[in-house]
Write a structure and sequence with these properties.
Helix content is 29%, strand content 20%. The protein has 317 residues and is α/β, with parallel strands linked by helices. It has two domains: 35 residues, no CATH class; 261 residues, TIM Barrel, CATH 3.20.20.70. The strands form two sheets. It has a ten-stranded mixed sheet, with helices on one face. It has a two-stranded antiparallel sheet with strand order 5-6. The chain is globular and about 70 Å long. The structure holds iron/sulfur cluster.
Length: 317
């Protein structure tokens, strides 16, 4: 702190800065008036601002950001009743190349720093009560930045958002998957998309290095207690991975694991030869999974008309 002013508790200042982001520094009530005005006159809090914002007909807002080094990345604000979610990117692009994902088809331009991740949270200037790392990139491939961002989001001196409102989505890579389970207490969402090795490999090259069966085997040795949630994302590609056989095999694979499954209908992207399944097929899939005692939600993608839905972000105008 500048000459003449000292604080015995810098975390209290940090807490106020995060909680009051967007408000004048002079409004930090925990400090004497003179200090507040000193802060107001001498400091400013800067985060990256979106260079472009698009609004969907369903209310979703997508922001395009650009780092000082020229990396472009996107975040989305998704309102749904009382739940207001910000979906953030952890990388500009992605190097995992999943065949159904626009991000993966546009190459990799680098990891995002913690500052760039948190800029998405604050730069959209929208209220939120959930954060999901489901935008561009594989969060565990940028683990150190993501870990720090989650710690700041969760810390009492930071945003003080409970861990159960923060979710990291991953294709499942080692050893980071074990680390995130041990080191962070937030929710985990694993991208499953097919229970069959060769088929999953054909749409998710990561399967050849980290097979989903190994990922699940490891998860079965861990405890997901309390409000911490383990979920699996299953993207249904019409006529490809949506048969009763797939549903039964997925049920067998996940039985015995305390988890939730989100079924997501494919959102069409340029250059990919998949189609969206019909609602009846999706419901059949869910009913079969229910037979295995699994809890299943059919997730509605938001922001399709502005390319903000699952797998559609590319980071360009
Ligand atoms: S689905 Fe995730 S891991 Fe796969 S290419 Fe897209 S962003 Fe990367």
């Amino acid at each position: 702190m500048a000459a003449g002013y000292e604080t015995k508790d810098p975390s209290l200042l940090a807490h106020n800065l995060y909680k009051k982001y967007g408000k004048p520094l002079s409004s930090i009530e925990a400090y004497p008036k003179s200090l507040r005005w000193f802060l107001e006159d001498n400091f400013s809090i800067e985060v990256l601002q979106p260079i472009l914002k698009l609004q969907s007909s369903d209310g979703t807002i997508k922001g395009l950001f650009e780092s000082e080094g020229g990396k472009a990345f996107e975040a989305a604000w998704i309102p749904a009743a009382k739940r207001m979610t910000i979906c953030v990117s952890s990388q500009a692009g992605c190097r995992f190349g999943c065949k159904f994902c626009s991000t993966g088809q546009h190459g990799f331009r680098g990891n995002l720093s913690t500052f760039e991740i948190l800029s998405q949270v604050f730069g959209l200037r929208k209220p939120f009560n959930h954060i999901v790392f489901m935008g561009m990139g594989e969060p565990l491939d940028s683990y150190q930045s993501v870990k720090k961002a989650v710690e700041i989001l969760n810390a009492w001196w930071g945003v003080s958002l409970a861990n159960r409102y923060i979710t990291i989505s991953t294709v499942g890579i080692f050893p980071e998957l074990s680390k995130v389970i041990e080191e962070l207490k937030c929710n985990l969402a694993i991208s499953l998309h097919s229970p069959f090795h060769e088929e999953r490999k054909s749409i998710m090259p990561v399967e050849s290095i980290y097979p989903i069966k190994e990922v699940i085997k490891m998860l079965k040795t861990k405890k997901f207690t309390g409000k911490r949630r383990l979920s699996f994302e299953y993207l249904l590609l019409g006529g490809f991975n949506d048969s009763p056989l797939h549903a039964h095999e997925t049920g067998r694979l996940l039985s015995g694991l305390r988890c939730h499954i989100n079924l997501i209908a494919y959102n069409s992207i340029a250059g990919a030869n998949f189609r969206r399944p019909c609602l009846r097929t999706i419901e059949n899939f869910r009913e079969i999974l229910n037979e295995y005692g699994l809890r299943v939600t059919i997730r509605i993608s938001s922001g399709y008309d502005i390319s903000a839905a699952c797998g559609m972000m590319v980071g360009s105008k």
